[in-house]
Write a structure and sequence with these properties.
Layout lengths: L1 E3 L31 H13 L2 H16 L13 H20 L4 E4 L11 H11 L9 H19 L3 E3 L1 H4 L15 H23 L6
Parallel strand pairs: 1-2, 2-3
Helix pairs in contact: 2-4, 3-5
Length: 212
């Protein structure tokens, strides 16, 4: 079984993901800056920096990234062509799996943001936008919503299985450590929900209902 938990945020960056790779990605060479100890030290150092200063730095980094591109690179909402690309890439993966006789379990993408944003939510959204500078305002949140709609439609059109994590895991700091990454509590809900679905599918395949 192939479990697909697709991330949509890359589709509102300056360049969308490539539809296919024509040659393998070279394995990165080990270097001193890439060692885990340096990443750990960076995380520890960040905890010493006041949150307000971190937010100002990230906003400055976002503005600097935008200054290198034309004004039309800014996205107030997900462009239709990016949504079309997301759908195309998702269905291509599903089709490849189905052609190989692999069952597909799709999972909608969960995040912490609800309809109303708290001041902390807004800070986390600014942090998230550092990695996707063109996405202004609620564009990232809207991309998540549209991508999950496409996942649900793909489940119907391609007859896959689905776990709707976006509707199951509450939008709360209790379950997310930042915008999209789970805390242990969120990861437990996701893991238990997916495991239960797999067992349900396996039980159905082993003991199909009597239709006589």
């Amino acid at each position: 079984m192939l479990i697909i938990y697709p991330v949509a945020s890359d589709y509102v960056n300056f360049k969308p993901p490539r539809p296919r790779l024509r040659k393998p990605i070279p394995k990165p060479k080990d270097s001193w800056p890439s060692l885990r100890i340096f990443r750990k030290l960076r995380i520890v150092a960040k905890k010493k920096v006041p949150r307000e200063l971190q937010t100002l730095i990230r906003k400055w980094q976002t503005r600097r990234s935008l200054s290198r591109h034309a004004p039309d690179a800014i996205m107030k909402s997900p462009p239709p062509e990016r949504l079309a690309a997301y759908r195309e890439h998702l269905t291509a993966i599903v089709d490849q799996a189905r052609r190989r006789g692999i069952a597909v379990l799709l999972a909608t993408h969960a995040h912490r943001f609800g309809d109303t944003l708290t001041p902390k939510d807004r800070r986390l959204l600014d942090d998230w936008r550092k990695f996707y500078p063109p996405a202004q305002g609620r564009c990232l949140i809207e991309m998540e919503a549209q991508a999950n709609r496409i996942i649900r439609e793909t489940r119907v059109s391609h007859r896959t299985f689905l776990v709707d994590l976006a509707r199951i895991i509450p939008h709360s700091n209790k379950y997310f450590s930042d915008s999209v990454h789970f805390r242990d509590s969120g990861a437990r809900i996701a893991a238990k929900t997916i495991a239960a679905k797999i067992l349900e599918i396996d039980n159905f395949a082993t003991h199909p209902p009597n239709r006589s």
